[in-house]
Amino acid sequence: MNSKGRTINSIKGEIHNLLAVLRFLPSSCPETHTEELMDLFQKLLVCSDVDSVDYWAPFLKIIQGPDANSAIKGVALSSIHKFLLYGFLSPTSDYTLNKIVNGVVQCIIDTYSSSDEVVLMKLLQVFLECLRAPASIYLTDASVWSISKRCFDVYERDRVSELLKKTAQNTLLQIFLIVFGRVGVISQNKETSGYGVVCLKKILLHLAHLIGYSDKSDISFKEKRCLGLFLINTALETAGENIGLHQDLISVIQDEVCKSLLLNSATDDLFILSLTLRVVFNLFQSVKQHLKVQQEVFFNSLHLKIAAAYEETGDPIMFQRSELALESIVDFCREPTLMLELYTNYDCDVEFANIFERLAKFLCKHAFPLNSSFNRLNELCLEGILAIITSISMRCDPNLQPSGEQMQDFREKKAMKEIFLKSAEIFNSDQKEFIPKLQELGYLPKDCDALAVAKFFKENPAIDHEKLGDYMGKKHDFNVKVLENFLGLFDYKSVSIDQAMRNIFKSCRIPGEAQVVDRVVTLFAHAYHKQNDIVKDENSAYVLAFSIMLLNTDLHNPSLKSKMSVESYIRNLQGVNGGDNFPEEYLRRLYESIKADPIEEKEVIRTIEHHEMGDMANKWGKVLLRSKNVDNYWMLNELLRQPAGENEKLMFDLLWESGLLGTLTSAIESASSPRAISDLRTLLVECSKVAAYFNMNDYILKLISILCQCFVKNTESVAQLYSTPRAFYILEAAVGSALVAKDNLFNAWGHLINCLLRLHKLKVLPSQLIELDDFVDEDGNALPMATTQLDETFFQYFRSSNYSQSASFISEEEPVEESSGIWASFVKYLGVPTNSYKTNEDILQEMISEVREKILTSGIHILFVSSKNLELEGLSSYITNLLQKCKVETDEISVVLCLELITSTVLSNFSRLTETLWKNILEVLENLICAETYTWTSERALVNLIRITVLHHEDYNGLRLSLQNVLKYMSQLNTGNFVRFGERLAAGLTILLNQGNAYFLYTADNWQTILKLLQNFVLIDKTTRTGLEVFISLLPHLEKNLDIDLSMFDNLLEIVKMYFRSEHLDPPLVQKSTEIIMKILKSIQKRTESETVCVFWKKTVGELGRLCQNNKHSIRVFSYTALQEAILNFTNFNTWAVWRECFDKVLFPLVIEPFVITKEMLKGVSEEKAQALRNEYEMSREKATSLVCQTVLNILPMVVNCSDLAGFWLRLVKLLAQTLKNKDEVNERSYELIKNLFLIMKNENAISEELWNETWVLVNLEALKNEVNS
């Protein structure tokens, strides 16, 4: 079966259903209905066109018939509904659909039973399907309006059930979604047939009637108001901006709708007020460009008035009303375009009040909590301020492309308005002395005359019209001249005389005195006649003008019952136009014009108070009249894609001048809810962002200073900080504000540093800010402080990545006691869990750990370690503030932290620092290092100066000079003070020297300083080790630098000799020292003649010889090694006197007494250990004997040829003989050494037979003699 067949069958089925009902109730319906249904059934048998209205007619007749009961009508409506749902109507069935609507609309249900309501529900369903049908676009305005009106009627029926009301309301909602959804289509194709603006206008008018429905005798009047508000809100949301395309709809909105909404502002019903405010918001979102005057009235009369009601009256009942109004204001504030449009359209237009300024002042004032209690109203005001600031901040982006032409126009308008307002205020407050005041400000020329004053009055719309009329109405000559010139400034050409009079009355209010009126009319007649030929002379113009004034009074004075007719008016003016009559048509037009539009003095309605609602018709009429004569409303949607400009800057200025800072300060102290705190934190950051964008550095300073001062006030102790959540969000706000304004902080850095130092004193800074770079020892551990107390301080306040606290500073575990007493009670109050396993110190550490984590989330470490991102001026301010803290702070811990920050900043930005900055930095470091009394600060200043110098002394000459000054100062310190700096100074110099580019140290003056430092290093036990490292680092440079005088080597050697002669020698250090003097000797050997080398050699072996006699075995071991190297490797001296001196002063004494065994050494020592000591003594003698023999053999030719060979040989033999025997036992080692020497001497025939005889007498060892002579 095809679709047409299915359609016919469906219609047949509905006919059968309806006929069955008619048969069941035969008395309720005439026979004609049955016959028509039977006829339709017969027609369907021949498959006629089912789209014909004929097939719908029987059903429609039953529906609209007065004799059918509701049950039968219900069945017929169900059939119609079914046909519509099945889509029996084609998209072009416009005539049929309109017929259906007209028929269904006439369905009358007069009874009030539940079954009747079922029928009405079916009726609503049919209406809705008619509008959903494809052919619904062809419905006429009358059809759509009748549908809507009938739905309203159903809703407004008496004794209707709640279900039917809700159904009717829902149906209206869906109808509005459909019909107002076509507003845009209507605007695009005005030729389209079907419903359009006409029905929409009627609907809007009906809604306006419902909104303003005030018949309180009707118990459902509130429900009707709510329905009207609900539906108009739906209409506005659905139509959106398209509704503004139709002037007829705009006219209704401007007049009836807005007037009814304003009347609702006086309601006591919070729900109605809430709906009203929402409608107002959507109204201005949709068609604000057409409601410039209305928006001003609403802001003044509705929003701001109600929002301020609670604080002004203190009435608790008003709290919720104020809350609703504020929520609506916040919604407006959240629209970024609207805030800028408020400013440009109102604050920049002299014809309007400064709405944005008033809004800003209102929000700042009412965000300020009363009695330190931050309530919901304060929170809403804060949200409003945040929304406004955010709307500005979101466009504070330099990446947006500027377009300054349009914005420049607004700036000029704002500036002109300020001039108008200021100059008008001067006149309005003093009409006698205003001229010199205006001249002083440049608003009037110095040679001011009546014309200039008249122009000032004519051009300044802010002048008070009443005071202007009083001034020009005075009889003084100057005032009269001003009036004459004022009237002469109007353009009367081609302007009707009544319109000319309207223009004048709109510019000033003429006093009612007859003389004044006569003078004004006379001067007006003179001016008007000069530009118009229709009046033949001034007198004629005078009479005509007066007649118009009299006519205006006659027609519009409510106390006059009898009104002048047009004929009487024409008759009264016969022969007054220079003896002739005015054209009758001309006078008729004047009469009708005055009758339709009275001449009135201009009255600007900016607000309508609640007590004035009774005169709403008159007041609102003046609002409408004003709305016809205002400039266009500037739509600024495009500006959202442009960067913020001068207008936004002025907007922010207005907010600031409105008390924003005081509001924020109070809110910081009193805000408690999480939402308020979050909003406040965001607001502070956004304010800083905007201020930074516009370079409002004073604003930033004030914001940061307040935040930091408040933070410091709340952080006297860790416990206070832990228990004050406010302090954390204040810190987050301060840091967030600083991060977005980092290049504009300048003096604000000082306040931020105060916060940092406070956190440091509490030991809760993140590790990123308290890790210090320091010099390390051979094992990689940081050098200890000068005292144990300083070491403990270090670990309390700072960390080092390469240093772990030694066991000596870790306290032993103590017995754990249960927390009790005041402290336990306090921590319990703070919410810190206490138990028997935790000491008070444990609890404190837990608090510190938790606080530190929160501090870390604030990002404070990012702020203070990201100096690379600062612009040069901001970087300079940051460093300058740190330097200032170093000068004024008395707490060492704080100064040290500032020093570390300065150093890290310098190292990160050294190439960007200016000459002035370098000088200031080095001045502070030098002053701290060279302070009169030693402090830890001095030590850290020295470390940091060296750190900077090591890395960058080649980049900036001032660093070298500064280090030289410091080294010179150090070299002059007494031992007690020097020892405090020694290790770090030595470590720093070592690093500097190891770099290989510290040639600036080798000048004569600097060399003397270094020598003095080296002497101090070596002679002070605590710094000897690091001092020797400096020696080792220095020597390679001396070797490479051939220009260095040899006296420097001699000085170095003398310093080492001074150490060797000190009381307490440390074997490892002595070993290092012997290595040093051997390097010195070798360096000299490479650089100079043998005679000079000989001098250094003698000094060297002399010192090594003394060391070989040291009581400590380890010292003797490496001393003998060094001495052996010095003697055996330096045999090229050809002077016997040098060698003889070496034997006599160095080698022979070693054989005679290798070292001294004192009583002290043997005291309390066991015999075994004493014997071991004596054995060691003999071994040392053997070693000395060996060295002596080796030396003789090395220089044998020189020995043989020396002049005192006999004396030398006999002394040598005598010493050697002493080593041969040990308690009558032959010392095998010595025996072999002497035998070897004797054999060589024998083979070389170096000595005479006589000398051999003397030798054997001294040796007295026959076995040795036999072996040598065999």
UniProtKB/TrEMBL annotation:
- A Pfam family matched in the record: Sec7
State the Gene3D superfamilies in the record. Answer: 1.10.220.20, Arf Nucleotide-binding Site Opener,domain 2 (1.10.1000.11)
What SUPFAM superfamilies does the annotation carry?
Answer: Sec7 domain
Read off the InterPro entries from this record.
GBF1-like_TPR, Mon2/Sec7/BIG1-like_HUS, Sec7_C_sf, Sec7_dom, Sec7_dom_sf
Q: Which residues form the SEC7 domain?
A: 409-597
Q: Which GO terms describe its cellular component?
A: cytoplasm; endomembrane system
What would you give as a GO molecular function for this chain, any one?
guanyl-nucleotide exchange factor activity
> Any one Gene Ontology biological process term?
regulation of ARF protein signal transduction
> Could you tell me what this protein is called?
SEC7 domain-containing protein
UniProt organism field: Stentor coeruleus
